[in-house]
## 1
Amino acid sequence: MKKPILGKQTFLKENNERISSYEKFVKEVYENTNDQKPLYTGRYLVTLDEGKSFSKIRKTFKNKLGFKMASTNDFKDEAINESKLKNADALIYEHLGIALIDGDEDQIQILESESNDFIIEPEKIVYVPDDIPSIMNISSTWGISATETMNSSYTGKDIKVAVLDTGFDLQHPDFIGRNINSNSFVNNQTVQDRHGHGTHCIGTACGDSDMHGQRYGVAKDSIIYAGKVLSNQGSGAQSWILNGINWAVNNGCKVVSMSLGSNVFPGQGYDQAYERIAKHALSKGSILVAAAGNDSRRSRNIFNPVNSPANCPSILSVAAIDMNFNVADFSNRSINPNQQIDIASAGVMVYSSWPVPMRYRTISGTSMATPHVAGILALLWEKTPNATPYQIINELRILAKRLPLLNIDVGSGLSIAP
């Protein structure tokens, strides 16, 4: 590609206002030039119906749309990365039945008229949820106690856990000697975390103790896979998330944790591309877990639906609770049909690792609850390594502590370590 599937076009929102193209989106990713959060990149994801092949649509791409095509088969033993693509207008994920395309509105209309064998969706922009800062010097690790991690004989030993986020501080002193694998899916940025969010989430899911010996991580003996899918400014393209998931699953990660998301409106469905790759992950022995989102303000009677991709049926959605075991004020709710909260965990005033020189930080959000659950899933995989993902998920639900709260807010309850 002359530039890695960079969109030249725009997508029409429901109110017919034009939003930024992928080129503008990329500029904002690196320069943080837009105070408002745009919804789409300007590109599209085409998801084939189950059992359909790309044979017919390939011909349409080539003969009617004039697309130059790239394939995931071009990446033999390496992770899919847009920066390595050349002169392509479409990237075909052969094993998933998904294609990422850069086309104008006329081309999209032609494609839609060709067949009913697929769904076309605008590619979303994904963000770090708006986490709520807490008092910086409070080193509260109440979540480790509440989830009974301290009492568990399991440590996630040798279980591969992927955290897809803003990357990781590879020089963090608490992780010296740990088995860490990393990859960046953000064009022109290394995996080194210049944001902080990713390092915090990896600390909770896979960390151990701080410089004073205080335990803050769940699966302290797990194998860490740090995937940078969001830029140092905290945003990324939906395809970057797909590429990160694909990398994690191909490397045998049993858990893939995603404290990220895109807003979902009341009545809006889940993204077919995310659901497709989540089903693929389950078939390969991997469980995807994602943050429900921080868009609600319950104290003002404002409730918002579970974010994408957490709203997908095949991805575990995590809500946040506070130290009093109440639902966090910001935590989203199961509002849309078939888009539920699955489980809850500690998400208020959570202390974990942060890039040096700060080294540690206490923040709040469903982003903080999600890696608690990811770590517990690693403990469950260590306990029953030959189980299926569905058996592990069922055990997670059985072990959960029931709370006197609505299922639409906390699902099965508070996640508890085995």
## 2
Amino acid sequence: MTERLLVLTRHGESEWNLKNLFTGWKDPGLTPKGIEEAKTAGRGLKALGLGFDVAFTSALTRAQHTLKLILDEIGQPGLETIRDFRLNERDYGDLSGLNKAETAAKYGDEQVHIWRRSYDVPPPGGESLKDTVARVLPYYVETILPRVMRGERVLVAAHGNSLRALIMVLDHLDDKTIPSLELKTGVPLVYRLNADTTVASKQVLEG
């Protein structure tokens, strides 16, 4: 039986997550907590007896480091890994590097909430979630999904918003629901797909 395994993991806590900064395409590293989150994710996958045939990650350090720590924990440090900017976090444009609370004080809570949690309103100079979906989904359909459907076991280490784009399709969420979906750092989502690419099962590996 073909397994069709797809595991999605948001990176561990980054230095800018800790400081409550808009990160986007900026490239801070993981905090000690983030490193431990990634190792815990790897141990959880290993405890399930899961191994992988290929891994995908973004062009950003925090996702790549998370992936490396997971692969070390499951004993696959040399796994084929494909890095692509299309899995990058949403680009927050002019907000990148700014403190979220200070930005809300400057522009107002309502405006910042719209930038963060609307589907199709981009921050100044940046991407909306809709823009991010338009970047991520074609890559998933053309490059990642075919390998899953061939029976390869696929691991993706990426970001909150690039993963929202995938979960939107996998979990059949609409543009009103997906912006408010919270993804915890370093928590793997284990999907097994049916032959028609729909979800057969989903497991959230917390703790």
## 3
Amino acid sequence: MSTRGRSYRYVGPVELKAAVRPGSGGCPISSAADFDGWIAERSAAELTEPFTFVVGTDGVLRLAPRRSEHVACAGGDMVLSAGEISFMREADRWAVGEVSNQSTGYCPDVASWPAVAHALDDVELGRPSGFTHEVVFRRCPNCQEHNIVREDDFVCVFCGSDLPETWNVDPAV
């Protein structure tokens, strides 16, 4: 277990996790040199869209194309955070343009930001002070469905039950 926060199990469709092959995870980015090499291989078209990211329990950022499943990017493993991230040139260096915790496979809490911040700091990327788009996930205690809470409306979209104020997506955590 990492000292960088809670870890999250994959809670999405089982068939997506079953399709993950060993060694098929996203590209690990553990240094500025790793990022420079990775970003240099991206096309201008790729850079117009956000990328899929996870922060592994080892604290390392892993990146994959946007339409990649988070569970594949993580190699099927637990994560400290997951979401989407975009990059932009800021003066003479790369920086994070936008970053969210939008991953319906892991449903990480917004409190997973410190793990993302550490991983970005480790590779010397300029970054915002928090998620630029926060997604609030909750599991309905009544019907067990996963929900995205919008506009602070903590009501299940599937059955109308009240949702808890605190993160509860993974009952095993």
## 4
Amino acid sequence: MLVEPRTRLALGALGAACFVSVTSENLPVALLPQLASGLGVSDSAIGLLMTGYALVVAVSVVPLVALTSRWDRRTTALVTLGMVVVSNVVLAVAPNYAVAIAARLVAAAGHGVFWSVVASMAARLLGPGQGGRATAVVFAGNSLAFLFGLSVSSWLGTTFGWRLAVLVVAAVAAVTTLVIRVTVGPMPAVAPASGSRIAVDRTQFPVDVTTLLVVTGHFAAFTYITAIIARYVHLTGPETSALFFAHGLAGLAGLVLIGRHIDHHPRATALVTTAGLAVCMLTLLVSPGPVVAGTAIVAWAGPAAGIGVVLQAAVLRVAKDRPDLASAVYIVAFQIGIALGAALGGAGLGHGMLPLAVIVAAAGGWASAVVVWRSKAFASAA
């Protein structure tokens, strides 16, 4: 399928928006020790910046998506990206932990709304039958966030300080907002279905259950990946950035492979994503040394990169007539998973039991793989 140059630019701009959104959301992961030291709190307290962010998104996304349901989709994307800019500027100058929390809440309020529209915007650009491919294209920004966004943020934080790293993210978000305004045309909203209909939709329920299980597992470990790297691979400081880079590169490769097959083999790609997470975590638990552990952490990025693509594509398949609000319900499950995973991992870290986070991740991967195997929601549309 040939894609017009203007459409390519628009997809690239949406991908850049995904990049900056994911980078901003996960800054506490990349800057964990620097934020803890700079704000005078513990590592687990910085992990709560992820938990609180996710809880705000989970609570606010459905009413906010309903409130903005008649907005032009491009306008929605621009406003929510503007909130990312404001959030990171405030975070960069935050004098204490309380202000840092408030700054994170600003971006969290718009986060769910942005992710409820970006996949459907991409699908509208490519046309019918291309939902999985469109999602994979723009979600490449996610993998690039882990390839460059988090690794560069980590390097900036350790070299020049975390405040400069956060300001750089704010600047990238501002530029991305301008690019979308120029390259993406107006997209009038599609009339939404009622939220109650979506909430009880049995076709989407297995997707939401899978989301909750696999995301809880993934973020139980990923939120504290810098601590995991230090324990299992024995790398700290700038050396961690190099492993972040390799992790992101593997994620980009995994996204390319999943994007090629998601529309034709949805169940197979979903199983690679869910069971793949479990395999990587089990390998990390039994690793005999830092080389195997480092390899497992890099390989982990492959299935991790597919989580959003596989799940969002499933939502678009089962909710073709109501993509925005259906995505909002899915985002609730996703954000609850982030909050629960970060909390479980933080509990393990706080009690000196970091392997508990890895065990939760392995369990979440296997449990979600069972749901995928048994659910028709991941069967091929054909």
